[in-house]
Fold this sequence. Notes:
The chain is mainly β. It has one helix and 13 strands; from the N terminus they run βββββββββββαββ. The chain has a seven-stranded antiparallel β-sheet, with no helix packed on it. Strands 9-10-6-13 form a four-stranded antiparallel β-sheet, with no helix packed on it.
Amino acid sequence: MKKKVVAGFMAATMMVSVMSTGVFAKDLDPSSETQRTGDTTVTATVEENLNKADYIISIPETVDFGKIQQPETEGNAYSYKDITVSCIKADNLGAGNGIAVLVKDATAAESSDPFLLTHNTHSDCALTYEIMNNNDESIQNGTWYANGFLFNLFTGADQSATDKLRLNRNQLYNKDLSVWGGQYTGTLNFYTKIVDVHAQ
């Protein structure tokens, strides 16, 4: 299985330092009209924080349910496929910080929007699926954030999390396979950010 690597940098913390390379004075003299006023230039140098968080998260390039069969009887008939996300690198994480990995369907705009697989030639034919966590609960039962649901929270390098994609084949029950048969494709959007672990 090919993997994509997502590299991220925490928004740089900026430091301001006042330059003190030399002090040049100008005397204001009230006895002279031209010397009653003067200007002072204020300068600062903005530097990038060298201790910013630096991380790499590895996500799978593809996850394939393979060939799925239409059920002969009505009722739940689940197909499962593992999906693993790993933290390869996690340098300079601040105390109490972690790397949150969020995920949503590429078409989703809100929490009620499902994970979708759409037929490659019949756009009206679509199958929904779920992402199930280690407790065998849909991640959609969790909190919806601006960029999706929490897939996992990493606190260091060499950590990984495996959830399961679950597709209910009952969606195909009694469907005309001359229309519904064929290839389906969907896209997951992953998003990473530095968060306060205690706030989660």
